[in-house]
Amino acid sequence: MIAVFLVFAAILYHEWRYMRRKKRKRRTIAIVLGTAVLMLLGMEVLYLLKDRWTVISVMEGIFFPLQRALFFEK
C-alpha cells in the first residue's frame, strides 16, 4: 500500500512540475491533480476492501436478476 502511494506521489509531482513549467491554467492543474487524487483514493479503498469485495459479487448483483427474468425463474 505504501508502494502504491509512493508511485502515485511521484506521478503527481511529475505532472504538477510539468504543468507549472508549461504555464497551464490553475483550473487545468486542479482537474488533473484532482483526478489523480481520486484515483489514488479509489486504489487505496480497493486495496483495503480486497477481502470483502470482489468483481464477481458485483457481476452477480447485476446479471443474476436478468438471468432470472430471462429464464422465468422464481
Q: What overall geometry do the principal axes of the alpha carbons give?
A: elongated
The oligomeric state of the chains shown is single chain
Count helical runs: 3
The largest β sheet comes out as:
none
Order of helices and strands: HHH
**Helix share bin:** over 70%
> DSSP strand (E) fraction?
under 5%
How confident is the prediction overall: mean pLDDT? Answer: 87
Query: How many separate domains make up the residues?
Result: 1
State the secondary-structure class: mainly alpha
Question: What radius of gyration results from the CA coordinates?
Answer: 20 Å
User: What ranges have pLDDT less than 50 throughout 5 or more consecutive residues?
Assistant: none
**N-to-C CA distance:** 43 Å
Number of strands: 0
